[in-house]
Amino acid sequence: MGKNFYNIEQLRKQARKNLPDPMFHYMEGGADDEVSLERNCKAFDRYQITPKSLRDISNLSTETEVLGHKSPLPLILAPTGMNRLFHHHKEYAVAKAAEKQNLIYSLSTVATTSIEAISNTISSPKMMQVYIHKDRELTRTLVERTKKAGYSALCLTVDTVVAGNRERDFETGMGLPPKFTLKSIASFLLHSYWLRHAFINKGFTLSNLTDYINKDEMSGMSPAEYINNQFDRTLSWKDLEWLRNHWDGKLVIKGVQNAHDAKTAETIGADAIMISNHGGRQLDGSPAPIDSLKPIKEAINGQTQLIVDGGIRRGSDIFKAIALGADAVSIGRPYLYGLAALGEEGVISAISILKEEFERTMMLSGCSSLADIKEDMITPY
Ligand code: FNR
Questions:
Q1: Which of 28, 80, 154 to mutate to test the pocket of ligand 1 (most atoms within 8 A of CB)?
Q2: What residues contact 44, with CB distance under 8 A and at least 6 apart?
Q3: Cα 108 to ligand 1 centroid, rounded to whole Å
């Protein structure tokens, strides 16, 4: 396509053009009234950056350590399920883009590419995200496969004991396969590039789970029905101790939203906490993660890294998160927009846009390194 994109919103618009309605709204949507989804982005606007002048910023470094990895940016790619819905190069495109930029890539349990296929494709640091299924043997096997495949980190998502109520998916008939209505058929026909590749390059299966799911039972299930059927509602902090004992690599708890849970995660030995509301896709009305950062930072003992996840659309958002005490941020939709827009090239584009914006924000604020980004530069608006 050879198009130049200079902000994330442009990638979003291109993704909108490329994807049929069920796919786009599955990616874009949130739960219920999408209050948290909207708040995640808007919350960043409520913090202003007061720059420091004349600080010699000629030697700029954005380098930092995330989960033991020397990363060129305080940024990781969050786990997102079913990437095949958005582009036929699916998770491979995202993983390769992450490797090219030396950033940590996260693979979702409900990915359309397997744990092993990703580890055979990239050699840069990888994190596997797990949900706890009712069938504990399944989770145990996923952890074993992750170990064997050489992933450096395991991420347990704790905000999805039941599915968030994503009403856009009801409207579009999103499911595997989607429920066809006149409207959705029209939308598929209008997106011929996507449709053509749907027939040529299939690959829509949940690759990590194929040995465990009954295809007849699954057929036509929406993502929400799958979660409500398969995920374990009895999940408690004890299970986390179990996981800690079975996994000796880096352990990340994703979806922590309050100081008490953060302290418990730290006590259990989590190497990092992802302060996240699942991009506004689970509990609607939950706070924007950037607003939960400070109370969580104050409550923990500094033994665990803090990663803020949700609503990052500009490099200045990364700056604000670092200033308020995050060790890094993670992004979901920004790279998915890139994936849907242009495949691997689009993911690289999304990362490059955020990188350039972050660097420019640092320079304009008089900061040469992450250590220079201080809380006193941020004031609530
Ligand atoms: C997600 N997210 C997610 N999280 C997770 O732990 N496991 C998963 O399988 C998924 N799947 C998923 C699919 C899609 C389409 C989206 C948009 C998100 C949540 C994701 O990891 C991350 O928390 C949010 O995307 C962060 O918010 P932003 O960056 O999208 O605003």
A1: 80
A2: 290, 311, 312, 313, 314, 316, 317, 320
A3: 9
Give the gyration radius of the chain's Cα atoms.
20
Q: Which residue ranges are tagged as binding site for glyoxylate? A: 26, 131, 166, 278, 281
Q: What is the mean pLDDT of residues 63-83?
A: 98
Three-state DSSP class for residue 43: helix
Is there an atom of ligand 1 within 6 Å of 78 CB? yes
User: Which pLDDT does position 103 carry in this prediction?
Assistant: 98
- In this prediction, residues 193-205 reach a mean pLDDT of 94
Q: What is the pTM of this model?
A: 0.97
pLDDT range class, residue 220, cuts 50, 70, 90: low
Does residue 328 surpass a pLDDT of 70? Answer: yes
Kindly state the average pLDDT of the residues 231-259. 93
Q: Is the shortest distance between the CB of 98 and ligand 1 below 6 Å? A: no
Residue 134 DSSP class: S
Atom 16 in ligand 1: which residue has the minimum CA distance?
A: 80
Task: State which ligand 1 atom lies nearest to the alpha carbon of 40.
Answer: 31
The mean pLDDT value for 311-321 works out to: 98
Task: Give the angle subtended at the CA of 235 by the CAs of 230 and 237, to the nearest 5°.
Answer: 155
Decide if pLDDT at 227 tops 90.
no
Closest ligand 1 atom, residue 331 Cα? 29
CA of 54 from ligand 1 middle (Å) equals 39
**330 C-alpha to center of ligand 1: Å?**
10
- In the structure encoding, which two tokens stand for residue 82, read together? 């079913």
Is residue 312 within 8 A of residue 331, CB to CB? The reply is: yes
pLDDT at 1 over 60: no
What's the CATH fold of domain 8-380?
TIM Barrel (3.20.20)
- Helix residue spans in the chain (DSSP H): 8-18, 21-28, 35-45, 90-100, 115-121, 136-148, 167-172, 182-190, 192-200, 215-218, 223-230, 237-246, 259-268, 289-299, 315-323, 333-342, 344-364
Q: Where are the domains of the chain?
A: 8-380
